[in-house]
Backbone:
């Protein structure tokens, strides 16, 4: 921890100069720590990072909507951080000390989701050896976050609508009502208005969950935040991997900013993690992100929608070295669905 040293014998003027350098260095260090902390305060909001104009608008909205108990619908592309916003709303609400439960509706089949949400009584079905509380009971008093609410079945929509209107529910196999009180925050990547027109989403349920709507911008709409996000993820994975990677060169930031990020913040995080793991120095350069190849542009009308979708899925798989779990997260689908697509479209890893 020594800042400097003196060789004996030394003159008083030498000691004076050394002490002056040390005090100056300490002053600069304190100012740096203060400015760094201040910058983190103005660029982070409950783990949401950004200082661009769209994010500042979001920061202003969250405390306003958190004060009420109105249902909130968060819309945005996959990987934009919808659950982070839901958690921030809960943290700023009067229910902050009570449970927050997040459920991915797209990952659960209808029968399992009913049991998970409503619970069941003993003997309600084969294997129900004990009575079990559902998440609607457990979260009572807190906030329930339903991610990808557009994927739930019409029957489940009816059941949830009844719970929201009557403030009570029934366990599977039981006729005894249970009072529940929770704040509902939902999220979707779909345009639910289109789903209503197609008959896949109930209009009455839509109006019940969409009292307040918050749209999250895609990462390409707030490119000013890419540098901040990159530094945040670099610090995070540097600690997790115990590798000293603490700098990112301007050419790397320029490359990251020019990329389109179809997987949004989640894809950026995966890219930074990969770069940190494979980096051979403490500085990330543009070469560390050479795997980010721009999407090939097709001539207008030269490809069908299915072909474009196939190309995109294949590109994400290649970028993630065919790691199914990560690829499914970026694409916003579950692993089982991705396996089905790979089998259906006969996708193969490029040797």
Residues:
């Amino acid at each position: 921890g020594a800042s400097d040293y003196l060789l004996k014998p030394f003159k008083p003027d030498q000691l004076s100069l050394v002490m002056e350098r040390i005090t100056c260095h300490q002053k600069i260090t304190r100012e740096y720590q203060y400015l760094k902390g201040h910058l983190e305060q103005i660029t982070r909001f409950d783990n949401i990072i950004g200082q661009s104009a769209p994010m500042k608008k979001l920061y202003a909205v969250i405390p306003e909507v958190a004060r009420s108990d109105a249902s909130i619908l968060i819309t945005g592309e996959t990987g934009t951080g919808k659950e982070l916003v839901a958690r921030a709303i809960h943290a700023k609400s009067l229910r902050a000390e009570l449970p927050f439960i997040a459920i991915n509706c797209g990952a659960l089949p209808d029968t399992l989701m009913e049991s998970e949400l409503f619970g069941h009584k003993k003997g309600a079905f084969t294997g129900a050896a004990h009575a079990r509380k559902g998440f609607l009971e457990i979260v009572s008093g807190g906030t329930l976050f339903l991610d990808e609410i557009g994927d739930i079945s019409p029957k489940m929509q009816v059941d949830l609508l009844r719970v929201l209107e009557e403030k009570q529910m029934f366990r599977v196999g039981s006729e005894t009502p249970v009072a529940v009180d929770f704040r509902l925050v939902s999220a979707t990547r779909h345009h639910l208005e289109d789903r209503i027109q197609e008959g896949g989403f109930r209009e009455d349920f839509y109006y019940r969950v969409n009292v307040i709507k918050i749209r999250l911008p895609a990462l390409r709409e707030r490119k000013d935040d890419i540098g901040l996000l990159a530094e945040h993820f670099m610090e995070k994975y540097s600690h997790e991997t115990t590798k000293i990677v603490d700098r990112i060169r301007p050419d790397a930031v320029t490359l990251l900013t020019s990329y389109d990020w179809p997987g949004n913040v989640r894809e950026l995080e995966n890219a930074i993690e990969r770069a940190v793991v494979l980096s051979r120095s403490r500085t990330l350069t543009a070469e560390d992100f050479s795997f980010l190849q721009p999407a090939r542009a097709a001539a207008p009308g030269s490809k069908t929608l299915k072909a474009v979708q196939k190309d995109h899925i294949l590109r994400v798989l290649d970028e993630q070295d065919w790691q199914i779990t990560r690829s499914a997260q970026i694409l916003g689908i579950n692993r089982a669905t991705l396996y089905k697509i790979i089998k259906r479209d006969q996708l193969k890893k490029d040797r």
In short: The two ends are 52 Å apart (CA to CA). Residues 6 and 15 are 8 Å apart (CA to CA).
